[in-house]
């Protein structure tokens, strides 16, 4: 899949998910993801691997956000399948993120140092942006919340990189 198409689609989905949640339309982003998924699968040459990542991250990724909710680090707008669990739009966001890992985000997961710093910097930036757009609220003190998010995302991405991404081109996933 063309990495530019992949990252543009992901950013548009991210924006729809966050703005939808902030405006009480938390169904909008998940609906757009369901529309994007079949098109993504038509454009990729790694259907099975992308579907595996999608399934794994839709199931496991929200556990990270649920841990943030349970520890008071983040509060989200929107309905959740169970009280205290990540809302539906966050579950969809994990699915959208999964569809980038073998494409536009592949380079991030190929080197552990890049993976670590992407988690440390990119994780908190996404949560700050989501908070500023009104879809989430970060706990005070903000610095402490961001450190927890940074370390959790760095660890999650480092764990994810091993089974998810071949370390060199041509290695089957």
- Looking at the chains present, what oligomeric state does this protein adopt? single chain
Structural class: mainly alpha
What percent of residues adopt helix (DSSP H or I)? 55-70%
Span of the ends, CA to CA:
15 Å
Q: Tell me the series of helices and strands, N- to C-terminal.
A: HHHEHHHEH
In DSSP terms (H or I, runs of 4 or more residues), the helix count works out at: 7
| Biggest sheet statistics | 2 strands, antiparallel
Estimate what percentage of residues fall within beta strands.
under 5%
Radius of gyration: 15 Å
Low-confidence stretches: 164-173
Mean pLDDT equals 92
Biggest sheet strand order reads 1-2
Please tell me what the overall shape is.
Answer: globular
* Overall strand count: 2
Short description:
By secondary structure, the protein is mainly alpha-helical. The protein has helices spanning 3-22, 28-43, 47-70, 88-98, 106-109, 112-132, 142-164, and strands at 74-76, 136-138.
Structure in words:
- The protein is mainly alpha-helical.
- The two termini are 15 Å apart.
- The longest helix is centred in the middle third of the chain and has 24 residues.
- It is globular.
- It contains seven helices and two strands.
- α1 packs antiparallel against α2, α2 runs parallel beside α4 and α6 packs across α7.
List the helices and strands and how they pair.
Blueprint: H1 3-22, H2 28-43, H3 47-70, E1 74-76, H4 88-98, H5 106-109, H6 112-132, E2 136-138, H7 142-164
Antiparallel strand pairs: 1-2
Helix pairs in contact: 1-2, 1-4, 2-4, 3-4, 3-7, 6-7
Keywords:
173 residues; two-stranded antiparallel sheet; 7 helices; disordered C terminus
């Amino acid at each position: 899949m063309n990495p530019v198409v992949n990252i543009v689609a992901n950013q548009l989905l991210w924006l729809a998910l966050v703005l939808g949640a902030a405006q009480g339309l938390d169904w909008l982003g998940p609906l757009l993801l369901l529309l994007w998924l079949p098109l993504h699968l038509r454009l990729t040459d790694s259907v099975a691997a992308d579907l595996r990542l999608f399934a794994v991250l839709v199931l496991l990724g929200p556990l990270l956000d649920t841990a943030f909710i349970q520890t008071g680090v983040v509060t989200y707008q929107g309905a959740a399948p169970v009280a205290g669990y990540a809302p539906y739009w966050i579950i969809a966001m994990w699915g959208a993120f999964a569809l980038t890992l073998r494409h536009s985000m592949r380079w991030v997961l190929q080197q552990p140092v890049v993976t670590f710093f992407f988690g440390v910097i990119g994780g908190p930036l996404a949560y700050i942006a989501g908070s500023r757009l009104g879809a989430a609220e970060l706990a005070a003190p903000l610095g402490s919340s961001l450190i927890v998010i940074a370390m959790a995302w760095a660890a999650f991405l480092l764990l994810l990189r091993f089974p998810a991404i071949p370390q060199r081109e041509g290695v089957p996933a």
